[in-house]
Predict the 3D structure of the following.
Amino acid sequence: MSQLALLGGPKACSFDRVETWEPDYEREIALCSQIIRERAFSNTGHPIALEFEQRFRELVSGTEFVLPQNNGTSTLIAGYFAVGVGPGDEVICPTYTWICSFAPAMVLGAKPVFCDLDPETLCLDPADLERWITPRTRAICVPHLFGSVCDLDPIMEVARAHGIAVVEDCSHSHGARYDGKPIGSIGDVGCFSMQGASPSGKPVGAGEGGVFCTNNRHYYERVLAFGHFNRYNISTELTEPPLTELTTATWGMIKFRATNLSLAIGLVALDSLEYRNRRIKENYDALLGLIADVECLRPVKSYPKAENAGFYGNLRLIFHPEAAGGLSPERFAAAVAAEGASLGGRNYDGYHLTSPFSTGMAFYDDGRGVISPQEGYVPQGPGSLPKAEKVIPNILALPTMIDPPDGYIEGMATAIRKVAHHYRDLL
Ligand SMILES: Cc1ncc(COP(=O)(O)O)c(C=O)c1O
């Protein structure tokens, strides 16, 4: 094939539109109009909110308690609070995730402790958990990133052996399963984000929103009491003393309730979730099949019991510079972009090497804070998580495709294959 576009040759493909799927605008407008006309913005047991809760309960079937929240971050704060995370505790979380996986525990006074990745799946490495467990470890955060389900069996085994709670961060992976069970229903608590709008936002996008899930009545009641005062059913739902003593007039630490408008948009997104998940998977498989012989670009693997889904943002690939004469992933991606296709970057850096976690930082003027050097915070430093440190710089990503235009997948593959074929010209 001809010269690389990055070096002045013709582009391999050209698309003015990369996605033809559209949300059901009419249903969104109808539900929101109903809420606006009824002036029913706050959730007092509105039928649309109840339908949303019911539909989400079906998504995480087997989960008894499902509680909508105002965003994913607040859902994680609630999740950590539910399992008892508090001042002086430690929470283990993989270094490669979005900060909201673990920062909510810091709000409650806990210190983040970062663990390594399985370099084949980019998920939390279950084999690296024990090393970081101390008498202060209260919870393990399990982020199922970009649709990839973590290996929950060994994680739960370690957690149970040490009496540590598991908080699943399901923000990217609505509809994914492990061993036949929906994610969010396996750990002690499951936390979903609904930030953004389908198709580019979270798989169930609701503007801003989240959902807390658990099978543990005690955890559910703690979350209700924590952030849901004035919820329509709170007086009958709180059954455990001393929570039963709380009244809306005397209680209200923080407020995490979702609005009905968000839940209406989330409900419409739930309608199309299965279709979108299926199409994204089919399209990934088709594209990956067309680039299967590109040795420098390998898809992430998934665990035998995992049924990945949701696929927020993208599908990650691992670039192997050694199979491309030492070419950098950035240069490879730039060359693919010049061909008219899209190959994104690594999304997140490892937090243990990123400020303020690499240096420590006080949150208050007098030096206090859970990662404050004055309070004894010792950064983990380079070399502490070798697998993550090696693989993160080589992460690339394909875009999410639901109903791409005709020829888009083939165009992407042609662009990637052209660059892989001519990599020597880039050295
Ligand atoms: C992995 C992960 N966890 C938690 C969150 C927090 O969700 P929210 O933005 O709804 O607060 C996000 C948001 O992008 C996320 O990517």
